[in-house]
């Protein structure tokens, strides 16, 4: 992995430099966008961001897992998991310059 992790503060700083909003308004904007996305996902609604990708919720059923140390079977409870599917534009962007060979 190259570079550093992108944080909320980095996103807010990008809004400050590119849009020109004051720092506190930029931070509030980033928070509101993230709250809207997470709230929609928590409600079970998919989130689609054009040219970026889609976030959704998938239901996983109950299954049996194993403790890797002991080999003991352990039931894994049903749960909802977050899934992300990048758009073709995003796939092309992250693979730009990477030649298989």
Brief rundown of the structure:
By secondary structure, the chain is an alpha+beta fold. 40% of the residues lie in helices and 27% in strands. The protein has 3 helices and 5 strands.
Would you give the CATH topology of the largest domain?
Answer: HU Protein, Chain A
Overall pLDDT metric:
92
CATH architecture descriptor name of the largest domain = Irregular
Number of distinct beta strands = 5
- Secondary-structure element sequence? HHEEEEEH
The CATH homologous superfamily of the largest domain is termed: IHF-like DNA-binding proteins
Main sheet characteristics: 3 strands, antiparallel
In the sheet with the most strands, the strands line up as 1-2-5
Structural class: alpha+beta
GO biological process, one term: regulation of translation
Organism: Hyphomicrobium denitrificans (strain ATCC 51888 / DSM 1869 / NCIMB 11706 / TK 0415)
Keywords: DNA recombination, DNA-binding, Transcription, Transcription regulation, Translation regulation
Protein name: Integration host factor subunit alpha
């Amino acid at each position: 992995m190259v570079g550093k992790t992108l944080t909320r503060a980095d996103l807010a700083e990008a809004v400050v430099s590119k849009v020109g909003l004051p720092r506190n308004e930029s931070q509030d904007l980033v928070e509101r966008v993230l709250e809207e996305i997470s709230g929609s996902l928590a409600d079970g609604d998919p989130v689609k961001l054009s040219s970026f990708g889609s976030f959704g919720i998938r239901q996983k059923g109950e299954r049996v897992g194993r403790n890797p140390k002991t080999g003991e079977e352990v039931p894994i409870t049903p749960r909802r998991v977050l899934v992300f599917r990048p758009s073709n534009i995003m796939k092309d962007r992250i693979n730009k310059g990477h030649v298989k060979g």
